[in-house]
Design brief:
By secondary structure, the chain is α/β, with parallel strands linked by helices. The chain folds into 2 domains: 59 residues, no CATH class; 53 residues, no CATH class. It contains 4 helices and 7 strands. The strands form 3 sheets. Strands 2-4-3 form a 3-stranded antiparallel beta sheet, with no helix packed on it. It has a two-stranded parallel sheet with strand order 1-5. A two-stranded parallel sheet has the order 6-7. A hairpin with a 3-residue loop joins strand 3 and strand 4. It is globular and about 50 Å long. The model has no long low-confidence stretch (mean pLDDT 91). It binds zinc ion (ZN). The site of zinc ion has 8 residues, from helix 3.
Length: 115
């Protein structure tokens, strides 16, 4: 199963033990949207909990700060990146390139903080 950090995802019913473990690990839950792993979550523990409960490996993916698309498929560091440890605020291949990339990143981040 693939999980995009910062994006909502659904899980099958996993029982109250698993649910309360996920809540302790800072996973957000919304009745309509499902679950979400964010900067407040203990991503490493939550991924272990979910993969243990589902009996399958989890593949983590990051979201592009600028366009909200999945960043990892177009990233040259995807093979060596430990997505449980890096910042969930990342950039896709398109927005990480070019002379304006850093400015776009900083100004998008600044406008998020201002919201
Ligand atoms: Zn992007």
């Amino acid at each position: 199963m693939k999980l995009v950090l910062g994006g909502w995802f659904r899980l099958p019913r996993l029982g109250s033990d698993v649910f309360s473990a996920l809540m302790k690990q800072g996973v957000r839950y919304d009745r309509e949207l499902g679950f979400k792993l964010g900067h407040e979550s203990d991503v490493e523990s939550a991924v272990k909990t979910i993969s243990g409960a589902l009996g399958e490996d989890m593949e983590l993916s990051l979201m592009c700060l600028v366009c909200s698309n999945e960043a990892c498929p177009s990233c040259p560091y995807a093979v060596t990146c430990d997505r449980r440890k890096v910042s969930p605020i990342c950039l896709c291949g398109e927005h990480a390139r070019g002379p304006g990339a850093f400015h776009t990143y900083v100004s998008t981040f600044a406008s998020m903080l201002a919201e």
